[in-house]
Design goal:
There is one protein chain. This protein is α/β, with parallel strands linked by helices. The protein has 2 domains: 2-287, UDP-N-acetylmuramoyl-L-alanine:D-glutamate ligase; 297-451, Protein-Tyrosine Phosphatase, Chain A. Helix content is 38%, strand content 22%. The chain has helices at 2-8, 14-30, 49-62, 93-105, 117-121, 143-146, 149-172, 207-211, 259-274, 279-287, 315-328, 348-358, 374-385, 401-411, 440-451, and strands at 39-44, 67-70, 74-77, 80-83, 110-114, 132-135, 184-185, 193-194, 197-201, 217-222, 227-235, 238-245, 248-254, 297-300, 306-310, 333-337, 361-364, 395-397, 417-421, 428-431, 434-437. Strand 17 (361-364), helix 13 (374-385) and strand 18 form a beta-alpha-beta unit. Helix 2 runs parallel beside helix 4 (93-105). It starts with a helix and ends with a helix.
């Protein structure tokens, strides 16, 4: 009943937004505005924000900083990790503020917060004085909520306006702000090295617009921007590139593959520089980063094929993922694809089309229907796949997700790559009747142990 009532009220309804604002304010007041005692770093974007958030946390912690993190995958305080089982990128304002108070009690200096457009629009992060923010990219997603790309982009921009406001406050307190970033003391907690800045991707469609925000910034990209990745090369096991910043260069070898992870590394590096890390500390941190659970996680079969489990939910994420896998694949690619219920319906055919384009065998299946008819979701995904392939000739629809994985494993041969997207590190799936236990990685290992 409550779910249906919420659907009837516009997300932009002023009373609904006032309700969210009130909750955000009460939460911050209840817990005593703990974020003011730390350097708060926000990470937003459509794709890559979880990996970037984890990279920033790792860079700061590996250099000896006291750092906490809230991400889609994990919460952490000074290296103690706890799985985020909520399936939310950003928690409720009360849980967020409670976590931030715990951080203060454990003497955390830096907190990295993965910031979703929903959380920004709903004031879940109200009262957090972000002084550093980075943007990965903005592509098609969440139009079921925001309605248009313009509104989606404006929700993301709220984070960067907070940083600009904090920079202005610092300026009136005597800090000098220019176009270059230099580490300085925090006005809220002396001795914490950082400079106010926004970190922007030059390749993003909205770069020029965000670049107009009047505050210190670092831009990044391939052979473009203040912070650059040059001479990048890739394998299925990692990436290598030359990191360049302010005429200094360093060779970096990442343990995570793909050009998009190099972009994530650049975004994280921009934040690290604003926090005073040296080239040597950043190189060490990047090269020791092991990746994120459920993000291009690789499982190898004794029969010589491999399975990649990834969270990819958007058209852009799938295109980047599959193009990377196709570049390094030595045999066939088998793609398993579904789509989440009660979310953006317009992207479903495109998801099917992309996977069918890049895979030799495409299997459309169920994912998390929530309150929707699961077959209707699959049919929408399948309709996009059918623009590329013919049913029964490289294209199958298998409603049961477990059976779909079994089918893929049974048809995989030595050298093949099976790609399963949508669930990532999640340990439950939400069906019409409610959540069930489901860890995609364990399901794959179970089927491989028995059949593969």
């Amino acid at each position: 009943m409550l779910h249906k009532l919420k659907k009837m009220i516009s997300y932009d309804n002023p009373f609904r937004r006032l309700w969210h604002l009130g909750k955000g304010m009460i939460a911050a007041i209840k817990y005593g505005f703990p974020a003011k005692k730390m350097v708060c770093i926000g990470v937003t974007g459509t794709n890559g924000k979880t990996t970037t958030t984890h990279m920033i946390e790792h860079l700061l912690r590996s250099s000896g900083k006291k750092v906490a993190m809230l991400s889609t995958v994990n919460f952490s305080i000074n290296g103690d990790f706890e799985e985020n089982t909520s399936k939310k990128t950003t928690m409720s304002p009360f849980l967020t503020q409670k976590f931030l108070r715990q951080c203060v009690r454990k003497d955390v200096d830096y907190v990295v917060i993965e910031s979703s457009s929903h959380a920004l629009h709903q004031f879940r992060l109200w009262g957090i004085p972000f002084c550093i923010a980075t943007l990965t990219n903005i592509t098609h997603e969440h139009l079921d909520y925001h309605g248009t790309m313009e509104k989606y982009k404006e929700a993301k921009k709220m984070l960067f306006k907070i940083v600009a406001k904090q920079a202005t406050i610092r300026s009136t307190m005597g800090s000098t702000i220019g176009n270059t970033v230099e580490p300085e003391q925090s006005p809220t907690r002396l001795g914490i090295c950082h400079g106010p800045a926004i970190i922007l991707n030059t390749a993003d469609h909205y770069f020029e617009e965000f670049n107009q925000i009047d505050t210190s910034k670092i831009t990044y990209g391939f052979d473009c921007g203040d912070l650059q990745a040059r001479e990048a090369t890739y394998s299925k096991f990692g990436s290598e590139f030359t990191l360049s910043y302010h005429e200094k260069t360093s060779k970096v070898a990442l343990k995570v593959p793909a050009s998009f992870n190099v972009e994530n590394a650049l975004a994280a590096t921009g934040v690290a520089f604003t926090c005073g890390l040296s080239f040597e500390e950043i190189k060490h941190g990047l090269e020791s980063f092991e990746g994120v659970p459920g993000r291009m996680e690789r499982i190898v079969s004794p029969r010589g094929f491999e399975v990649i489990v990834d969270f990819g939910l958007t058209p852009d994420a799938l295109k980047r993922l599959y193009s990377t896998i196709r570049e390094t694949a030595i045999a066939k690619v088998i793609g398993i694809i579904g789509s989440c219920g009660d979310r953006d319906k317009t992207k479903r055919p495109e998801l099917g089309r992309i996977v069918a384009t890049y895979s030799d065998l495409t299997i459309v299946t169920d994912e998390e229907p929530y309150t929707e008819n699961p077959r209707a979701i699959m049919d929408a995904v399948f309709s996009g796949a059918e623009t590329v392939k013919i049913k029964g000739i490289g294209l199958e629809l298998i409603e049961d997700r477990y059976e779909a994985i079994e089918y893929a494993v049974a048809h995989a041969k030595e050298g093949d790559t099976i790609v399963i997207t949508g669930m990532g590190n999640f340990t439950t799936r939400t069906l019409n009747q409610g959540p069930i236990k489901w860890d995609e990685r364990e399901v794959v290992r179970e089927i491989i142990a028995r059949d593969g």
